[in-house]
């Protein structure tokens, strides 16, 4: 009897483990199915843009979700790469200039945000005075302020200060991107042992040298995450450049697409879809390559020392 009880007692924990494994497997399969459906919902608009970028303008309007395959009922649905050519040549503003402006604004703005906010976050985290706390919470508060509340005064201020060029609008982006960047950088700096900086100070390093030789390289995970998020935001942004830039002289890709209009307000939807596809391809590739760094940077920034 004792042997039977011992055997039963030994089997029961194993049965519980097996039951838990089966339960976890079923829940994992269920979550995979749910998230796959959600992913398809998010990917579907991108697929619709891809399909319609190769269709004639008429069929984009009438048969939006139909594949661009010629048949007896739709002999001229396939437009090929003519939509891309038309999109680049329609209007009086060169598409190449819009691409250059978008690259300049995105790269310069991201560089400014990373450099300035990382220095500010290091100072805020290390000084820890009342003024620094006020500045930190103001930066965090700026993340929840809707852009629409300040866009009219911002437009007037940018015109007054001549911030309406691709080389000066990054200053405006610095103000709007500082909140999230400082929030992430401060969390990461607090996880860095201060003894490293104290050792550098003993060796004769000043604040700037300590920052650029010791702190700046250690901020790499969060810098990559901030850079990815800011690049995706600035590259796709339409409203801020539209309000600030001189549209007759400078246009970004989203603004260029908005101006693909013919006479009487007609729009070549095929050309529009083609240019939208060209504009999202670099961001998608960039995000797929760097997405793992976003998780690492956010997780690192969430750790407090």
Account of the 3D structure:
With 305 residues, this protein is mainly α. It has two domains: 51 residues; 209 residues, MetI-like fold (Orthogonal Bundle). The chain starts with a helix and ends with a helix.
Key terms:
305 residues, mainly alpha, MetI-like fold, 13 helices, 74% helix, flat
Q: Strand portion, in percent? A: under 5%
Q: What structural class results from the helix and strand content?
A: mainly alpha
- Unreliably modeled segments: none
Q: Whole-number average pLDDT?
A: 82
Q: What percentage of residues falls in helices of 4 or more residues?
A: over 70%
| Large-scale geometry | flat
Q: Secondary-structure element sequence?
A: HHHHHHHHHHHHH
CATH third-level topology of the largest domain: MetI-like fold
CATH superfamily of the largest domain: MetI-like
Distance from first to last alpha carbon = 57 Å
For the CA atoms, what is the radius of gyration?
27 Å
Return the CATH class of the largest domain.
Mainly Alpha
Biggest sheet record: none
CATH architecture of the largest domain: Orthogonal Bundle
Number of E strands: 0
Number of helices: 13
What is shown here, in short?
The protein is an all-alpha fold and 305 residues long. The chain is built from 13 helices and no strands.
List the topology elements.
Blueprint lengths: L1 H51 L4 H6 L19 H8 L5 H33 L2 H13 L8 H10 L8 H21 L4 H9 L4 H12 L1 H17 L2 H6 L8 H6 L10 H33 L4
Helix pairs in contact: 1-13, 3-13, 4-5, 4-7, 4-10, 5-7, 7-10, 7-13, 8-9, 10-13
């Amino acid at each position: 009897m004792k042997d039977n009880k011992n055997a039963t007692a030994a089997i029961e924990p194993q049965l519980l483990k097996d039951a838990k494994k089966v339960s976890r497997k079923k829940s994992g399969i269920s979550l995979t199915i749910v998230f796959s459906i959600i992913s398809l919902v998010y990917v579907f608009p991108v697929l619709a843009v891809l399909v319609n970028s190769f269709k004639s303008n008429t069929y984009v309007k009438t048969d939006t979700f139909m594949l661009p395959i010629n048949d007896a009922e739709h002999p001229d649905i396939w437009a090929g790469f003519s939509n891309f050519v038309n999109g680049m040549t329609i209007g009086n503003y060169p598409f190449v200039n819009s691409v250059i402006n978008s690259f300049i604004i995105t790269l310069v703005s991201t560089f400014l945000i990373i450099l300035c906010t990382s220095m500010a976050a290091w100072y805020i985290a290390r000084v820890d005075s009342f003024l620094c706390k006020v500045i930190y919470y103001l930066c965090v508060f700026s993340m929840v302020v809707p852009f629409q509340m300040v866009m009219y005064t911002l437009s007037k201020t940018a015109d007054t200060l001549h911030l309406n060029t691709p080389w000066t609008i990054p200053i405006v982006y610095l103000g709007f991107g500082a909140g999230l960047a400082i929030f992430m950088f401060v969390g990461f700096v607090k996880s860095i042992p201060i003894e490293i900086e104290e050792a550098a100070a003993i060796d004769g390093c000043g604040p700037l040298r300590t920052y650029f030789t010791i702190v700046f390289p250690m901020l790499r995970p969060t810098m990559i995450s901030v850079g990815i998020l800011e690049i995706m935001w600035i590259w796709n942004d339409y409203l801020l450049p539209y309000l600030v830039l001189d549209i007759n002289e400078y246009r970004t890709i989203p603004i260029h697409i908005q101006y693909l209009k013919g006479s009487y307000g007609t729009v070549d939807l095929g050309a529009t879809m083609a240019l939208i596809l060209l504009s999202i391809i670099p961001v998608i590739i960039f995000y797929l390559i760097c997405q793992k760094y976003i998780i690492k940077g956010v997780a690192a920034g969430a750790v407090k020392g």
